[in-house]
Amino acid sequence: METDSISKTSQNGPADKIGHSEEKQPEKATILQKDIGLLSGISLIVGTMIGSGIFISPKSVLLYSGAVGPCLLIWTACGVLATMGALCYAELGTMITKSGAEYSYLMEAFGSLVAYLYSWTSVIVLKPSSFAIITLSFAEYTSAPFYPDCTPPLVVVKCLSAAAIIVITGVNCLSVKLANYVQNFFTGAKLIIIVIIVVAGIVLMAQGKTENLSNAFEGSSTSFGTIGLAFYNGLWAYDGWNQLNFITEELKNPYRNLPLAIVIGIPLVTVCYVLVNIAYFTVMTPSELLSSSAVAVTFGDRVLYPVAWLVPLFVAFSTFGSANGSCFTSGRLSYVAGREGHMVKILSYISLKRYTPLPALLFNGILAIFYIIPADIDTLINYFSFAQWAFYGLTALSLIVMRFTRKELDRPVKVPTVIAGIVTLVSCYLVLAPIIDKPEWEYLYCAIFIFGGLILYFPLIYWKAKWARKLMRPITMHLQLLMEVVPSEKTE
């Protein structure tokens, strides 16, 4: 394990002091606490999934699908696919009750190398760039009302985005319970705006505004690659269905709450998304929807005129809550990768006072701020999805592999193998279709970056270079003292 470099500089000096003053304190081990129940689990799934996607992606899904009918079918199919993927993760999460989601499952099925490539790609690029994309959406919606006649200046959007990253990271560093309260509040807020849009759409349909839904398949796209891109953008809105698996160790009764939260949360989001899209088409023609810079705001201006300001406000709430959920789970991946020796050991340390993975959260936040500097949301979504779905497919494949290689493992939830097979095949399609249809250098750069991680893997992790340990030991000790963090205790 790479940086066993660190002597366990355990600042457990305070432990003695605390032991005299309070009886309960010594019983609380220095580990991530099991503070997350069923409601918070559902809030994390729903709150992370319903973020900026449904308010931005409708344009992209319609653009690539070509007509209203295929657009609605793709939104439904994306929900079914997300549910199937999440069912696979329910089996994996109850079979391997470690945090880290894909990382832990790939480690068990394929070994250290594949798990490392996932952690390298996700910790350095996928997770912080996703966090950055969501906060950029938050900044766009927050600043839009102050610039009614023009697009908000880029510098304003990026500064707001950076401020959101700092606030959210700070909240998550302070307390797991506080982060949960924030998540529950903003999940409630986003469900309110979804209900407002859906009810408005139902009223308009009752009034006969259904002309945009007739001849729904006229002009449909038949291109192999463009349909793949439509799925990319739809699935971007559904991304988050695997978030609970990142925090399995912090779930109360994971064998019950993990599958139950998945079964309740994802179908709820699917129904919301399809109804919201139908509501959009009662007010806007396909061309109007494509020309809108903020679909949900345009809908609000036309339908909720006296209180149209509610829409950007609640959309900002929605994106903020989604960013909070993304930050919460991203820190856990860095923490687990550090614990297993695939990232620097300091990332696996826990705040002595607050029981949060403070170094991992700060690392993710700092990287996210760097990613907002050159950000182009559409490009980031496409390349984010390309790499992410490669790992989703490998994870679904790991379920099939472990049916043969790890038969001894207890499986409280067992899904049909055919579901894992479908998720694997669809993942392959989503990775390969856009590359075959329209090859671009960016896909090659993405692959080079993923496999470029091997340059660090062999000397630092496989061969455990002594010079790396000597270099990291003093750095780790100083950071440990600065942040007041300690290695987590092993409690089996």
Explain this structure.
The model is unreliable at 1-26 (pLDDT under 50). The protein has helices at residues 13-21, 38-49, 53-65, 68-95, 102-110, 112-143, 154-174, 176-206, 224-238, 254-283, 286-291, 295-303, 310-339, 358-371, 377-405, 417-437, 441-452, 454-462, 466-483, and strands at residues 349-351, 485-487. It is built from 19 helices and 2 strands. The two termini are 20 Å apart. It is globular and about 70 Å long. It has 492 residues and is an all-alpha fold.
Q: Summary?
A:
This protein is 71% helix and 1% strand. The chain is mainly α and 492 residues long.
Map the helices and strands.
Blueprint: H1 13-21, H2 38-49, H3 53-65, H4 68-95, H5 102-110, H6 112-143, H7 154-174, H8 176-206, H9 224-238, H10 254-283, H11 286-291, H12 295-303, H13 310-339, E1 349-351, H14 358-371, H15 377-405, H16 417-437, H17 441-452, H18 454-462, H19 466-483, E2 485-487
Helix pairs in contact: 2-8, 2-10, 2-13, 3-4, 3-9, 4-9, 4-10, 4-15, 4-16, 5-6, 5-15, 6-7, 6-13, 6-14, 6-15, 7-13, 7-14, 8-10, 8-13, 9-15, 9-16, 13-14, 15-16
List descriptors:
71% helix, 2 strands
Shape: globular
Question: Rg to the nearest angstrom?
Answer: 23 Å
Q: Measure the end-to-end span.
A: 20 Å
Main sheet summary = 2 strands, antiparallel
What is the succession of H and E elements? HHHHHHHHHHHHHEHHHHHHE
Spatial order of strands in the largest sheet:
1-2
- Assembly type of the shown chains? single chain
- Strand content of the residues, in percent? under 5%
Enumerate how many helices there are, as a single number.
19
Instruction: Name the poorly predicted regions.
Output: 1-26
Helicity range of the residues? Answer: over 70%
Mean pLDDT: 84
Q: Based on helices, strands and strand pairing, what is the structural class?
A: mainly alpha
Secondary structure: number of strands: 2
